[in-house]
Amino acid sequence: MASTYEKIATTTLSSAAASIDFTSISGSYTDLVIIGSIKTATLTNPACYVRFNGDTGSNYSVTNLYGNGTTAGSTRFSTQTFIRYNYVTDPNTTNFAPVIMNINNYSNATTYKTALTKFGLASIGLDNTVGLWRSTSAITQVTFTLESATNFATGCTFTLYGIKAA
Amino acid sequence: MSLILGILDSGAAAAAASSYESIATVTVGSGGTASITFSSIPATYTHLQIRGIARNSNASAGGLSINMQFNSDTGSNYSYHYLGTYQGEGTAAWAGGTANESFIVPFLMPTNSLGASIFSAGVIDILDYANTNKYKTIRGLGGYDMNGATTGYNYLNLNSGNWRSTSAITSIKLYGSTANFMQYSQFALYGIKGS
Fold first, then answer.
1. A151, A161, B7, B22: which has the fewest C-beta neighbours closer than 10 Å?
2. In this structure, are strands A60-67 and A48-52 parallel, antiparallel, or unpaired?
3. In this structure, which topology does domain B20-192 adopt according to CATH?
4. How far is CA A30 from CA A33, A138, B95, B192, in A?
5. Phi, psi (5° rounding) for residue B185?
6. Do B147 and A134 touch (CB under 8 A)?
7. Would you call A65 an interface residue with chain B, using a CB distance cutoff of 8 Å?
8. To the nearest whole angstrom, how far is the Cα of B60 from the nearest Cα of chain A?
9. Domains, chain A, ranges and CATH?
10. What are phi and psi of B180, to 5 degrees?
11. Using a CB-CB distance cutoff of 8 angstroms, which residues of chain B are in contact with residue A8?
């Protein structure tokens, strides 16, 4: 049987960069999974953002569940210009932090798009988020950035996978 | 395409070439449906994963649970726990559990009261589903955000569930606690092979 879980693209930074971008994503899969490992080149504790299709409008929102070592809690942000997938777990210049993002049914032209993300650093805590992009457009581009134009450090890597249902 | 190697997290299951296979997919058509059943599931995999999006036709405010049963067992042989955020408007996490239930709740879905076009997304892992020596365990990750809509919206859950049966799982039923899955809801069943 043909593989239904395929690597689409990988980006590993050979020098610091302000964004990591997957473009021209095919609509031939059912779901997307993005797995990354990030740290910052300079500023510590930035917020971590993802946008779709280059949309910089206020079309995103997010609900977050976090644990910081002593407390579990939640927060949310409405009418944002990005999905912020961290709240207590701010990346730093020292340790790489893992990111796993699921975007189910990313290519349908009927529903708004929802992204489930896990993010964490063992020394700080963890964040789980559900993010909404209020667009029925198929996702063809995914862009990761950091707060205040902070750069991703050399060695940061993101891999985009596609899952194809029968 | 390249191989995928390694152990990944929920929603990014372990896979090598052809070790992660699509078994069946159900997409809800116009008019909706009360339940979705995957039947005649072969025992040739090690784990199962269900990925999907869902919305419920009930017009009442709030979210609704997606219920899951195995092998048509409607007895009180299930239990589940949840950790999550409810509404997401406060600062408290939401946790609890239910014993001797007749279903497992892997995640929730929005009702048809607000936020048209918003569906929950979820990933369910069913571990060692064909083993006849173990009770069966699942975990679910899912949720939805409604962009700040008022009371009763915005959920994110990490759930675990148990079915107290040593039978191999051969069928899986998903249904809402009331009303129907709406059009465009979709669930896809995948099989993950071991060695």
1. B7
2. unpaired
3. Jelly Rolls (2.60.120)
4. 10, 11, 31, 17
5. -60, 145
6. yes
7. yes
8. 20
9. 5-163 (2.60.120)
10. -120, 155
11. 1
- Nearest CB among B53, B95, B146 relative to A104 is that of B53
Look at B120 and A114 and tell me if their CB atoms are within 8 Å.
yes
Distance CA B116, CA B178 (A): 19
- Chain B residues whose beta carbon lies within 8 Å of the beta carbon of residue A100: 8-9, 11-12
Sort out which chain A residues have CB atoms less than 8 A from B20's CB and list them: 3-5, 163
Give phi and psi for B165, each to the nearest 5. Answer: -150, 140
pLDDT digits (tens, 9 = 90+) for A46-85: 999 999 999 999 999 999 999 999 999 999 899 999 999 9
For chain B, the residue count is 195
ipTM score assigned to the predicted complex: 0.95
Q: Is A70 left (phi over 0), alpha (psi -120 to 50) or beta?
A: alpha
Chain A and chain B share a number of CB contacts under 8 A equal to 178
Interface of A with B in 4-43 (CB under 8 A): 4-8, 30-31, 33, 35
Q: What is the pLDDT of residue B17?
A: 52
In tens, the pLDDT along B17-31 reads: 579 999 999 999 999
Q: Do A128 and B158 touch (CB under 8 A)?
A: yes
- Spatial distance between the Cα atoms of A92 and A86, rounded to a whole number of angstroms: 12
Residue whose structure tokens are 């409008």: A57
CA torsion A47→A51→A57→A62, rounded to 10°?
Answer: -60
